[in-house]
Specification:
By secondary structure, this protein is an all-alpha fold. The protein has a single domain, classed as Farnesyl Diphosphate Synthase (Orthogonal Bundle), CATH 1.10.600.10. The protein is about 70% helix and about 0% strand. The chain is built from 16 helices and two strands. A hairpin with a 2-residue loop joins strand 1 and strand 2. The chain is globular.
Length: about 350
């Protein structure tokens, strides 16, 4: 396997940065969820990995808390204490979870983190309602801060972009593999920025905003998060085809079996080599994923994806270097960003 070359480094303490930020945010997140209707709160707790269906404490743990950490580090990078970014962390985590609940319904996904998704566990209607409740709570959380109106506007822009990205992603599935209507890499890039990057950028920007940062710092952190989102998504695409199932938790060639239009596939289809036509025919017919994976690699799809991820990681570093940030917080922010994209390719 090939390691992703990067200008960002991922020191071993990145997981500790995530853990520190989760510990700081958790009480406020629990308190916010506790204000929800009890049934909605149970579904939210189930989504976070806190409980099982019925409310019994869960053995499973939740996610890494990446967006929470970006919000806390955004505040610290602006020179404020991490707690200043906690309302931003709570709001963005609530919106992220809301989006996952609705995404799972739209995609028909039966499981997430090796557990039934909320709509499978509780029903489609309740899952939609729980998502709506989470979004309303996120807005309420930000509106109560001293930067309320501006913070809500930042969140609204990110949410609008997230919805745009999700719409494009859904539409990609119905478009042909070849011809003038095919999905091109630049369209995919925009989709990934909106669907994945917008909320990452929003988390860091909101943390900085609540930490009293000047507008250029807020803008730079938003831009860094958006580029991070594209890099993260492209790396995920590579792992979705060639990743080790023991590491990714996904079956080998899983994205090809699901016939997803990921970046390596689109880059390979854009090749002028004769193999591109064979790849298109194979994908159209739902042929053997092993053969398709080999063709994508041969046509340069994997190397193009690694180069794409690297270019966005470099853009992250440039965005951070363009503004004055608190030294220690900036180092931790870089370590976290590096940790997220330095996965084994």
């Amino acid at each position: 396997m090939t390691a992703l070359p990067s200008v960002l480094q991922a020191p071993a303490d990145a997981p500790h940065v995530l853990a520190r930020c989760r510990e700081l945010v958790r009480p406020a997140l629990v308190e916010a969820v506790g204000r929800m209707h009890p049934w909605m709160g149970e579904m939210a707790g189930y989504s976070f990995g806190w409980c099982e269906v019925g409310g019994a404490p869960a053995v499973a743990s939740g996610g890494k808390g990446v967006r929470q950490a970006l919000a806390v580090l955004g505040a610290e990078a602006a020179g404020a204490p991490g707690r200043a970014g906690v309302p931003a962390a709570v709001a963005v985590e609530l919106v992220h979870t809301f989006s996952l609940l609705h995404d799972d319904i739209m995609d028909g996904d039966p499981a997430r983190r090796r557990r039934p998704t909320v709509w499978k566990a509780y029903g489609t209607g309740p899952a939609v309602l729980a998502g709506d409740a989470l979004f309303a709570l996120a807005v309420e959380t930000l509106a109560a801060t001293t930067a309320g109106p501006q913070a809500v506007r930042v969140l609204s822009v990110a949410l609008g972009d997230l919805v745009r990205g999700q719409a494009d992603d859904l539409l990609f599935a119905s478009r042909p593999w070849t011809g003038p209507q095919r999905v091109r890499p630049d369209e995919y890039r925009a989709m990934a920025e909106h669907k994945t990057g917008a909320l990452l950028g929003c988390a860091a920007a909101l943390g900085a905003l609540l930490g009293g940062a000047e507008p250029p710092v807020v803008t730079a952190l938003d831009r860094a998060g958006r580029h991070l989102g594209v890099a993260f998504q492209v790396v995920d695409d590579v792992l979705g085809i060639w990743g080790d199932p023991e590491v990714t938790g996904k079956p080998v060639h899983g994205d090809l079996r699901e016939r997803k239009k990921t970046f390596p596939v689109l880059a390979a289809l854009g090749s002028e080599a004769p193999g591109a036509q064979r790849l298109a025919a194979l994908l159209e017919a739902g042929g053997e994923p092993e053969e398709a994976a080999a063709l994508i690699d041969e046509l340069g799809g994997r190397s193009a994806a690694v180069a794409e991820a690297r270019s966005h990681v470099a853009a992250v570093e440039k965005a951070l270097a363009d503004v004055a940030l608190d030294g220690r917080a900036a180092d931790e922010l870089r370590s976290l960003l590096g940790f997220l994209v330095q996965r084994d390719l």
